[in-house]
Fold:
Amino acid sequence: MKIPNRIPDDVQYAGFAKRLKAFAFDYLIILVYIIVLAGVNFGIILRGRLLEEISPYIASPVVKDMIAFFTLILPVILYFTLQESSHRQGTWGKQKAGIRVVNVQGDTLTTMQAFVRSLVKFLPWQIAHTSIYQIKEFVPGGPSEPFDITGFVLVYVLVGIYILSALILKKHRTPYDWVSGAYVIVER
Structure:
């Protein structure tokens, strides 16, 4: 029986600074995408009639949240998924920072591993959007303030856990690395 290869003991795991640098580069891509989305939305608003025609259908906070998920968050999750499960083993930002994402054998993540990793990674972003769309000021008669506050507290707790784990753990693994069986390593 063949024992699977493991990541070599002498590998250098990417620390918080390298991971943050990679995400900063990736955020440039996300920012360009957000600007394009804003331009499309602005174009819809300028065409007043179209907005008036569709506004009854998008008035619900649930619908607004779904639109945000499918037009912004899901494409970002898919970008990270497809890049990290490709032969490049990382996004453009990770390549610029000199790091890559691998599985326990040091191989490329499967598409499912990369998807789970990205989904958990961007979970706080989705929770924040959901909480924003539920705030009473935006939604008359919306849910109570404790719901809003709980959502935002959960976002900060998750992000704090993500940051602390990348900062203090020996292999700098975050919860989204653990769930997907991923490691972020420095290129040799």
Q: What stands out?
A: The two ends are 30 Å apart (CA to CA). The first strand starts at residue 99 and ends at 102. The helical segments are 16-46, 49-54, 61-84, 92-97, 111-121, 123-134, 145-168, 175-180. The chain has a mean pLDDT of 87.
